[in-house]
Amino acid sequence: MSEPATPEWPKLRLVDVQPSTYGGEEVLVVRDPLRLSDHAIVIPRQLAPLLALCDGTRDAGALRAVLMVRFGLQMGPDALERLLAALDQALLFEGERFQQALDHAQAEFRKAPFRSPALAGASYPADPADLRALLQQYLDGVEDALPPATGGRGLVSPHIDYARGGPLYARVWRRAAEMVRAADLVVILGTDHSGSPGRITLTRQHYATPFGVLPTAEGLVERLATALGPAQAFAEELHHRHEHSIELAAVWLHHMRQGQPCELLPVLCGSFAHFVRGEAESGDDPAIGAFCDELRQTLAGRNAVVVAAADLAHVGPAFSGEPVDIWSRARLHAADGEIMGHMCAGDAEGFFQAIRRAGDSWNVCGLPPIYMTLRTLAPVVG
């Protein structure tokens, strides 16, 4: 089989771009978020416009011309061709090379007996005993005396790493212990950090944790896939392989159930950025409506709990932002209070509109799963 050629009209995929320094120079590190390739491409920071220009509408000659005329950047044809070829080799462009790698990885993921924990041994211990001890340490550190949330139908769990969020995970899951132990089905709606706008992504794969395997509710998956359309429901299924949001909640679920499995429905929720910008309305989106309606009908006959694996604001240098001063902290505190008030009122639309009015300036990456949880469980209060 011949080697696929570099696309004549290169179109950059949704990729991970991080600022860094290399040899004292400011650079951008460009990676594939699906990890189909282990290669990262490092480019000078001043070439950032090139990435935006690779939108499938320009060939190499047009790219050189626009870089020169619009940005004053001179780049020789050979240097540009080498860079474009490197980006394609790293599977960062849409095209034949990327599609072949995606199809192969997706087939391997689907034929595996379960989805292996992606973060075990990195973000948390892979050994069950060590992991149990770590989570119990967090639980033992919970000082408040809030009563158990018996009879609850849903909860919001963080999806930040345990090193930073461990105490908050413990507070949430300790209160939810009784209801998750009694559940015969747990739905985890997690942020898909690489997901397409408004995408709802299912999987038939079971989720494993170091404590064992949580079996996916395959019958429910098929019902929801029918409601969404199978092509749409599974188009980005490979995102489940490395996305951390569901995994970090599933580990706590399994621990609080003392290693006893229950049926799981893992669902990834794509970006709401287009809704926030006003390009479409979340309340009118047919896929979101069909999903929430079908899930609500199914949950009516089950002892089910819905988990939104969701963080709120992401601000400050740790998240590539500016330092947060005392005034910004006060504004953030007020914004958090407003959106959490809507969450506790079970007001999905009010929650969304509060974030939209602020232009999502606080980077609330848990917007999609929280919104869909509130819509599914309505009417509900917290």
What's the SSE blueprint?
Elements: E1 16-22, E2 25-31, E3 41-44, H1 48-53, H2 60-71, H3 77-89, H4 96-111, H5 128-140, E4 154-157, H6 162-175, H7 177-182, E5 185-191, E6 200-201, E7 207-209, E8 212-214, H8 218-228, H9 230-234, H10 244-256, E9 263-269, H11 273-276, H12 286-299, E10 304-309, H13 326-344, H14 348-357, H15 367-377
Helix pairs in contact: 5-6, 6-10, 8-12, 12-15, 13-14, 14-15
Approximate shape: globular
| Strand order across the largest sheet | 4-10-5-9-6
Radius of gyration: 22 Å
Task: Report the order of strands and helices.
Answer: EEEHHHHHEHHEEEEHHHEHHEHHH
Number of helices: 15
Major sheet characteristics: 5 strands, mixed
**Share of helix, binned:** 40-55%
- The unreliable regions are none
β-sheet strand percentage: 5-15%
First-residue to last-residue Cα separation: 58 Å
What's the CATH H-level homologous superfamily of the largest domain? Answer: LigB-like
CATH-level-2 architecture of the largest domain? 3-Layer(aba) Sandwich
CATH topology of the largest domain: Protocatechuate 4,5-dioxygenase, Chain B
**Number of discrete domains:** 2
Structural class: alpha/beta
- CATH top level assignment of the largest domain: Alpha Beta
How many DSSP E strands? 10
Average pLDDT figure: 90
